[in-house]
Design brief:
The protein is mainly α. Helices cover about 70% and strands about 0% of the residues.
């Protein structure tokens, strides 16, 4: 049996009423924070994950189906997955930190630099903007495909397609056969 407050929240979510987020926060924030804290030990990261959880809940509100799962179960899954994504993101970030003492960046000679690559940003400007945005995010801002999807608010499949098409278009410039 669904509680009256839960039914009210579900109804507001279906309507896209922002009051649903306030009620969700009031009634579920502590429990969801507990779920997140089991995955993330850092309080600041956990708070970020909680905030991201509520953003995802709002964006996915229309996809909630009460016949498939209770509201808390749905919220729990979103919170847990967000926390896991934070762990992965943090692990990824930590592994990407530059180690200056073992870097060979300063040891490059002009002969070791591929001159054809230096003008890639100029050639990138010749592509449609939708491909430029994705390629910039992935190659010049160092985002993963998942991070670019979230940051640019573009579905992951679209990111992958635009990457493939953008690279194919660049290949035509660099390797016209």
């Amino acid at each position: 049996m669904i509680s009256p407050i839960e039914q009210r929240i579900v109804d507001l979510l279906e309507l896209g009423n922002k009051q649903a987020i306030s009620l969700l926060y009031e009634n579920y924030a502590d429990a969801l924070f507990g779920v997140i804290k089991k995955v993330l030990s850092d309080d600041d990261l956990a708070q970020d994950a909680l905030q991201e959880t509520f953003i995802k809940v709002w964006k996915k509100a229309k996809t909630y189906d009460p016949s498939k799962a209770k509201l808390f179960t749905w919220l729990y899954r979103i919170a847990y997955n967000t926390a896991i994504d934070k762990v992965r993101s943090q692990t990824n970030k930590d592994s990407k930190e530059i180690q200056i003492d073992i870097s060979n960046v300063y040891k490059l000679t002009s002969e070791s630099i591929n001159q054809d690559v230096l003008d890639i940003k100029e050639h990138l400007k010749t592509l449609d903007e939708k491909y430029q945005i994705v390629l910039n995010a992935l190659f010049f801002e160092g985002m993963t495909q998942q991070e670019a999807s979230e940051e640019l608010d573009i579905p992951l499949g679209t990111i992958k397609s635009r990457l493939k098409i953008g690279l194919r278009e660049l290949k035509k410039i660099y390797d016209p056969k």
